Amino acid sequence: MSLLPSDYIGHDAAWTQWRRALAGERMHHGWILSGRRGVGKSAFAMAAARELVAEDGVPQPDGDHPDIRYVSHPPKNDGEARKRVDGKPFELARNIKVDQVRELQRRLTTRPTLGSRRAVIIDPADDMEPGAANALLKSLEEPPAGTYFLLIAHRIGRLLPTIRSRCRVLTFPRVSDNEMDAVLSRESPQASSEMRAAAIAAASGSPGGAIDFVELDLGRVHALMRRVVDHGDPDFRLRGELAGAMGNRPSRDKQLAAIELARAVVADHMRSVQGEGIPALVETHGALVRLAGQAPTYNFDAGLLVMEIGTLLANLAGSRTPANG
C-alpha cells in the first residue's frame, strides 16, 4: 500500500513549521529532518519538496520531478551499477560519495526547469563521506539562487557542526504505542495481537521498524534474543536456535532488522541494569551501533553476523540487578 503524506503519524508539527516557513517572505535554504529510521522522514522530504517547487499555473509531473534532486547511496561498484540498470538486486556503497555531491553542484549551475525553485534531498545526510560533507558545506554557505536543501538524518550528531549550524531542524518524534498499533493494524492486518505487541516493543517508536518486524517474521528471533540476555548461552544452544530462526540465507533487510531488534532488546534491558552491569551494557550497545553502520554496505557472512549478535547479547547475561539491591 502506498501511503499519503497525511497517513504518517507524528508529522503534524513538522508540517506546521514547514508550511509556515513556505508562506513567509524568506524561506530558509537548509533543513535537517531528524529522527529515528522508519518514522517517514523520506516521505515527508519528497512531499515537502513537491510543495516547495510547485507554482500556480505550472503543471507538475506525477513521477520524477526535474526540479527535485535526490541523492542517496550509489551502487557499490561498476558491477553493481550494471545490476541496477538490468533491474537486478544490487549492493550499495557504504557512503554517499564526494563525486555525487560535486556532480550535483555542477547541475545546480543551471536554472530550475519548471519554476523558480529547486529542491535537493540527501538521504541520509549522516552517511556522507567526509569529502562529500565538506563539499556540501560550500553549497550551504553560498546556496545557488532558488535552491533548497533537505537533509535527512537518522543520527544528527554525525553531521558536521558547521552543517547543522546552517540549517533549520525539523524533529520527527517517536510514535506512541497506541498509534503504532493502529499503523500495524492497517498495514499488517495479518499480524496477531501478540505479534503486534512484540513488534511495538522491539521497534522503539519506529512504525517502519514495526512493519519490518512483522513482514520479516522476527517474532521468534526477538524471543530468542531476550532469552539470551536473560539467561546467557554457555553452551551456544540459543545462538544456534537464533541462527535457525534467521534462516539459511536471510536477506540484507532481515539482517539489518535483526541488528535494530538487538538494539531494542538492549534498550529494554537497560531499565533493569545498575552499577557494575552498566559498562557491559554500554559496550554492547556501542558494538551494535557499529554493526548497524557497517551492515548496509559490508559483505558480512549472515551466519557469522547472527552469531556475533548473539554473543554480544550473551555478554549481558548476569548484568541485571534488583532495583533495591
What string gives the helices and strands in order?
HEHEHHEHEHEHHHHHHHH
The description of the largest β-sheet is: 5 strands, parallel
In terms of DSSP E residues, the strand content is 5-15%
- Supply the CATH architecture of the largest domain: 3-Layer(aba) Sandwich
**What is the straight-line distance between the termini?**
50 Å
In the predicted model, the low-confidence regions spanning at least 5 consecutive residues are: 320-325
Give the full name of the CATH homologous superfamily of the largest domain: P-loop containing nucleotide triphosphate hydrolases
The geometry reads as globular
- The total of helices stands at 14
Q: In percent, how helical is the residue content?
A: 40-55%
Number of domains: 2
How much is the radius of gyration in Å?
Answer: 22 Å
**pLDDT average, as an integer?**
87
Main-sheet strand order equals 2-3-4-1-5
